[in-house]
Amino acid sequence: MSPERTAAPGADYWRARARALGERAVISTDHPDGAALDDVTARHRAHVLPALAAELDGTERTVLDLGCGTGRLTADLAAAVGGRAIGVDPVPELLALAPASAATEFRTLDVGEALPLADDEVDVVFTLTVLGGLLHDDELDATAGEIRRVLRPGGLLLLAESVSDLPRVEHWVPRSADDYARAFPWADLRVAARFDDAGDPIAVLAGR
Predict the structure, then answer these.
(1) Which of 97, 90, 49, 105 is CA-nearest to residue 72?
(2) What average pLDDT does range 99-124 have in this prediction?
(3) Angstrom distance (rounded) from CA 178 to CA 160
């Protein structure tokens, strides 16, 4: 991930958003201001956790929650594998809001640097509406390479990402399911589930 490419409006946008919105910075602003964050999170859980459970083969013990934000789902991911989850995010203001848990660990990603994990450290990599925030294809390609590095051979990749066909905006690039499949050719991604998030179509892509 290139520092000069992500400095503005990428990482800077999300840090400003975190300062302005606090824990609500991690959900779409298309959700009404009065929508309870717990309710939005519960709907996310109801869609992505069953999709994850259906893809596990029983050998997984460690999950990377990439772009974890405030860690809303990190403990759930640890519970899903009966092990631990590592939440990684480039926005310290969001990580500061993450709840402590014996089964979770949170690490800060320095923009432009490698993921703060060892080679083959995790059995599952999970994202929830994260990769659209990579504004350039070379950033997505670099991130895909890092994901492959930290995911053990044969590990599970589960991406829950927007596949909207709306035009790009300052902080978000819509991509299709096929775009993500091309970015991760080694994972043989397929659409395992779909759901709506405040009018935004989300595809849950899974592969190994």
Answers:
(1) 97
(2) 95
(3) 13
Inter-CA distances, 24 with 56, 84, 97, 143, 176, Å: 30, 25, 11, 25, 25
DSSP state of 36: -
pTM score, two decimals? 0.93
Q: Is the pLDDT of residue 9 over 80?
A: no
- Tell me if 7 sits within 8 A of 136, measured CB to CB: no
- Pairwise CA distance, residues 117 & 110, whole Å: 12
* Cβ-based neighbours of 164, under 8 Å, separated by 6 or more: 174, 200, 201
| Token pair 């302005």 in the structure block, residue | 20
Structure confidence by residue, pLDDT tens digits, 29-70: 889 888 899 999 999 999 999 999 999 999 999 999 999 999
| DSSP code for 69 | T
> Where are the alpha helices (H) located in the chain, listed in sequence order?
3-6, 12-21, 37-55, 74-81, 92-95, 137-150, 177-183
